[in-house]
Write a structure and sequence with these properties.
Layout (H helix, E strand, L loop, with lengths): L1 H10 L1 H20 L5 H22 L2 H18 L7 H18 L4 H19 L2 H21 L3 H23 L12
Helix pairs in contact: 1-2, 2-3, 2-8, 3-4, 4-5, 4-6, 5-6, 6-7, 7-8
Length: about 190
Protein backbone atom coordinates (compact mmCIF):
# COMPACT_ATOMS: atom_id res chain seq x y z
CA UNK A 1 0.00 0.00 0.00
CA UNK A 2 2.86 2.42 0.77
CA UNK A 3 4.38 1.70 -2.65
CA UNK A 4 1.05 2.47 -4.35
CA UNK A 5 0.78 5.68 -2.33
CA UNK A 6 4.29 6.85 -3.28
CA UNK A 7 3.82 5.96 -6.95
CA UNK A 8 0.51 7.86 -6.98
CA UNK A 9 2.20 10.96 -5.54
CA UNK A 10 4.97 10.81 -8.16
CA UNK A 11 2.67 10.23 -11.11
CA UNK A 12 -0.32 12.39 -10.26
CA UNK A 13 -0.21 16.04 -9.23
CA UNK A 14 -3.95 15.81 -8.50
CA UNK A 15 -3.29 13.00 -6.02
CA UNK A 16 -0.66 15.12 -4.27
CA UNK A 17 -3.00 18.12 -4.22
CA UNK A 18 -5.74 15.88 -2.77
CA UNK A 19 -3.42 14.88 0.08
CA UNK A 20 -2.68 18.54 0.80
CA UNK A 21 -6.40 19.37 0.79
CA UNK A 22 -6.90 16.45 3.18
CA UNK A 23 -4.31 17.89 5.55
CA UNK A 24 -6.25 21.17 5.61
CA UNK A 25 -9.43 19.16 6.33
CA UNK A 26 -7.62 17.39 9.16
CA UNK A 27 -6.52 20.69 10.73
CA UNK A 28 -10.02 22.20 10.50
CA UNK A 29 -11.49 18.99 11.99
CA UNK A 30 -9.13 19.23 14.96
CA UNK A 31 -9.85 22.93 15.44
CA UNK A 32 -13.60 22.31 15.41
CA UNK A 33 -13.50 20.51 18.75
CA UNK A 34 -11.67 23.39 20.40
CA UNK A 35 -14.89 25.39 20.29
CA UNK A 36 -17.08 25.42 23.36
CA UNK A 37 -20.56 25.52 21.85
CA UNK A 38 -22.42 22.96 19.77
CA UNK A 39 -23.21 25.64 17.21
CA UNK A 40 -19.55 26.60 16.68
CA UNK A 41 -18.41 22.98 16.63
CA UNK A 42 -20.99 22.18 13.94
CA UNK A 43 -20.11 25.27 11.91
CA UNK A 44 -16.42 24.28 11.87
CA UNK A 45 -17.44 20.68 11.14
CA UNK A 46 -19.39 22.00 8.14
CA UNK A 47 -16.24 23.67 6.84
CA UNK A 48 -14.24 20.50 7.52
CA UNK A 49 -16.82 18.36 5.70
CA UNK A 50 -16.70 20.70 2.69
CA UNK A 51 -12.91 20.34 2.57
CA UNK A 52 -13.10 16.57 3.02
CA UNK A 53 -15.70 16.42 0.24
CA UNK A 54 -13.26 18.14 -2.13
CA UNK A 55 -10.46 15.84 -0.93
CA UNK A 56 -12.49 12.69 -1.67
CA UNK A 57 -13.68 14.06 -5.01
CA UNK A 58 -10.05 14.65 -6.03
CA UNK A 59 -9.24 11.05 -5.04
CA UNK A 60 -12.21 9.71 -7.00
CA UNK A 61 -13.76 8.44 -3.74
CA UNK A 62 -17.34 9.35 -4.59
CA UNK A 63 -19.05 7.80 -1.57
CA UNK A 64 -16.85 9.88 0.76
CA UNK A 65 -17.38 12.99 -1.38
CA UNK A 66 -21.16 12.57 -1.42
CA UNK A 67 -21.45 11.83 2.28
CA UNK A 68 -19.29 14.82 3.23
CA UNK A 69 -21.28 17.11 0.95
CA UNK A 70 -24.50 16.17 2.74
CA UNK A 71 -22.76 16.47 6.12
CA UNK A 72 -22.12 20.15 5.35
CA UNK A 73 -25.86 20.76 5.08
CA UNK A 74 -26.69 18.48 8.04
CA UNK A 75 -24.23 20.26 10.32
CA UNK A 76 -25.42 23.72 9.29
CA UNK A 77 -29.04 22.73 9.98
CA UNK A 78 -28.23 21.00 13.28
CA UNK A 79 -26.24 24.10 14.33
CA UNK A 80 -29.58 25.91 14.30
CA UNK A 81 -31.39 23.06 16.04
CA UNK A 82 -32.95 25.37 18.64
CA UNK A 83 -34.73 27.25 15.84
CA UNK A 84 -35.82 24.20 13.86
CA UNK A 85 -39.42 23.26 13.52
CA UNK A 86 -39.90 19.47 13.45
CA UNK A 87 -36.23 18.49 13.98
CA UNK A 88 -37.10 14.79 13.70
CA UNK A 89 -38.24 15.38 10.13
CA UNK A 90 -34.69 16.59 9.33
CA UNK A 91 -33.20 13.40 10.76
CA UNK A 92 -35.45 11.28 8.52
CA UNK A 93 -34.61 13.47 5.51
CA UNK A 94 -30.87 13.09 6.15
CA UNK A 95 -31.17 9.33 6.63
CA UNK A 96 -32.94 9.03 3.28
CA UNK A 97 -30.40 11.34 1.59
CA UNK A 98 -27.40 9.47 3.00
CA UNK A 99 -28.94 6.14 1.95
CA UNK A 100 -29.51 7.52 -1.56
CA UNK A 101 -25.91 8.77 -1.77
CA UNK A 102 -24.68 5.35 -0.64
CA UNK A 103 -26.82 3.64 -3.28
CA UNK A 104 -25.79 6.00 -6.10
CA UNK A 105 -22.07 5.76 -5.31
CA UNK A 106 -22.00 2.05 -4.47
CA UNK A 107 -18.65 0.41 -5.19
CA UNK A 108 -18.64 -2.29 -2.54
CA UNK A 109 -19.10 -3.11 1.10
CA UNK A 110 -17.22 0.01 2.25
CA UNK A 111 -19.85 2.17 0.57
CA UNK A 112 -22.49 0.39 2.64
CA UNK A 113 -20.42 0.60 5.82
CA UNK A 114 -19.64 4.33 5.52
CA UNK A 115 -23.27 5.05 4.69
CA UNK A 116 -24.44 3.02 7.67
CA UNK A 117 -22.18 4.73 10.18
CA UNK A 118 -23.00 8.23 8.96
CA UNK A 119 -26.68 7.39 9.47
CA UNK A 120 -25.92 6.15 13.00
CA UNK A 121 -23.95 9.30 13.79
CA UNK A 122 -26.80 11.45 12.46
CA UNK A 123 -29.25 9.66 14.77
CA UNK A 124 -26.86 10.00 17.70
CA UNK A 125 -26.43 13.75 17.10
CA UNK A 126 -30.18 14.22 17.37
CA UNK A 127 -31.24 11.70 20.02
CA UNK A 128 -28.16 10.41 21.76
CA UNK A 129 -26.60 11.06 25.08
CA UNK A 130 -22.81 11.60 25.11
CA UNK A 131 -22.11 7.87 25.66
CA UNK A 132 -24.25 6.85 22.68
CA UNK A 133 -22.59 9.55 20.56
CA UNK A 134 -19.16 8.18 21.57
CA UNK A 135 -20.22 4.61 20.69
CA UNK A 136 -21.48 5.68 17.26
CA UNK A 137 -18.44 7.89 16.68
CA UNK A 138 -16.12 4.98 17.53
CA UNK A 139 -17.83 2.72 14.99
CA UNK A 140 -17.71 5.57 12.48
CA UNK A 141 -14.04 6.24 13.12
CA UNK A 142 -13.14 2.57 12.64
CA UNK A 143 -15.06 2.33 9.34
CA UNK A 144 -13.69 5.64 8.02
CA UNK A 145 -10.16 4.53 8.96
CA UNK A 146 -10.58 1.50 6.71
CA UNK A 147 -12.28 3.55 3.98
CA UNK A 148 -9.50 6.14 4.02
CA UNK A 149 -6.86 3.43 3.78
CA UNK A 150 -8.63 1.88 0.81
CA UNK A 151 -8.78 5.29 -0.92
CA UNK A 152 -5.13 6.13 -0.12
CA UNK A 153 -6.18 9.13 1.96
CA UNK A 154 -3.20 9.65 4.24
CA UNK A 155 -4.77 12.66 6.00
CA UNK A 156 -7.97 10.68 6.46
CA UNK A 157 -6.12 7.76 8.05
CA UNK A 158 -4.22 10.09 10.39
CA UNK A 159 -7.41 11.97 11.33
CA UNK A 160 -9.35 8.81 12.12
CA UNK A 161 -6.44 7.32 14.07
CA UNK A 162 -6.35 10.45 16.27
CA UNK A 163 -10.15 10.42 16.62
CA UNK A 164 -10.12 6.74 17.57
CA UNK A 165 -7.49 7.31 20.27
CA UNK A 166 -9.39 10.37 21.49
CA UNK A 167 -12.59 8.33 21.73
CA UNK A 168 -10.83 5.56 23.68
CA UNK A 169 -9.58 8.19 26.13
CA UNK A 170 -13.10 9.61 26.41
CA UNK A 171 -14.50 6.13 27.14
CA UNK A 172 -11.90 5.74 29.86
CA UNK A 173 -12.59 9.18 31.38
CA UNK A 174 -16.38 9.21 31.21
CA UNK A 175 -17.61 5.62 30.98
CA UNK A 176 -15.09 3.32 32.67
CA UNK A 177 -13.26 5.33 35.31
CA UNK A 178 -16.37 7.07 36.61
CA UNK A 179 -18.42 3.89 37.04
CA UNK A 180 -19.46 3.24 40.58
CA UNK A 181 -17.84 0.16 42.07
CA UNK A 182 -20.21 -2.72 42.58
CA UNK A 183 -21.31 -3.27 46.14
CA UNK A 184 -20.14 -6.45 47.77
CA UNK A 185 -22.73 -8.74 49.20
CA UNK A 186 -22.52 -9.66 52.87
CA UNK A 187 -22.19 -13.32 51.95
CA UNK A 188 -18.86 -12.73 50.19
Amino acid sequence: MIDTFLISIRESPVFLAAQLVGIVGMVVSFISFQNNTKKHILLFQSLASAIWGIHYLMLGAFTGAGINSIEVIRNLIFAREDKLKRPNMWVVLFIITFALIGFLTWVGILSLATTGVVILVTISYRFGNPRFIRICATMSSAIWLIYNGSQLSLAGVITEAFCFVSLLIAFWRFDIRKQKPKEKHLSE
